[in-house]
Amino acid sequence: MREDATKIFYSSNMFKIHTVESSFVWEDFEFLRALPANALPYIRSLHCIFPIFGNDDLKPGTASQINWQATVDFIARNLVLPRLDLTIEDTSGRGLGNLDTGVEPDPQTDEADWEFYRRVIEPVVQLHGLRDLYVHFPWPYHDEFIELRDQREIFLEKTVMGEAYDSTAHGKYAERDRLQAAEKEMKPMFGPDGTQIWPLDWN
């Protein structure tokens, strides 16, 4: 009975793990390592979130690179890759400093960011047998660069999964699309003064 409950719980939920950053030195993904060993093979959805980092992190020999490599090694050894959906996301908000001008930084800065993203994915190549891989990186930030961001994410996903892999066809944006569809069906809500408060009007 207990084993059945463990299987249902760990296979039915998405597990999100965050980096812990202090002076740009990352700690291990302790949450993942603390889970019961018998539960790890049941995990079906894992979301690795990088909320804060600098471009110097993940260079060979740094604490962050060692920790990230160890985490990927841990996933390779303990989780069942053909049944695992892995999402890797940067939520640091890089690029927000230029929202006032809408201008991207110089090419050297952009290249440094792109190199960092490639370093994030480099150890993940050993997880080639994953069921699905979804990469979400926000840089370059502004809407005019959506196509470039998409191309880079696709490149990184294919680096791990193979040239034929199509993350969109495998449901990369399924949750976003579901939420957007549900929002469209919601009836407008108005405050006491008659002002529409939902959906929000950003104009």
Explain the overall architecture.
This protein has 203 residues and is of the alpha/beta class. 37% of the residues lie in helices and 15% in strands. The protein contains six helices and eight strands, in the order H-E-E-E-H-E-H-E-H-E-H-H-E-E. Strand 2 (21-22) and strand 3 (25-26) form a beta hairpin. Helix 4 runs parallel beside helix 5. The longest helix has 16 residues, at 63-78. The radius of gyration is 19 Å and the shape is globular. The relative contact order is 0.10.
Key descriptive features of the protein:
203 residues; alpha/beta; 4-stranded parallel beta sheet; two-stranded antiparallel sheet; 6 helices; 8 strands; 15% strand; globular
How do the strands and helices of this protein lay out in sequence?
Blueprint: H1 2-12, E1 14-18, E2 21-22, E3 25-26, H2 30-34, E4 45-50, H3 63-78, E5 85-90, H4 107-121, E6 132-136, H5 146-161, H6 174-185, E7 189-190, E8 196-198
Parallel strand pairs: 1-4, 4-5, 5-6
Antiparallel strand pairs: 2-3, 7-8
Helix pairs in contact: 4-5
What's the helical proportion of residues?
Answer: 25-40%
Structural class: alpha/beta
- How many β strands by DSSP? 8
Uncertain runs are 96-102
Pattern of helices and strands: HEEEHEHEHEHHEE
Tally of helical runs:
6
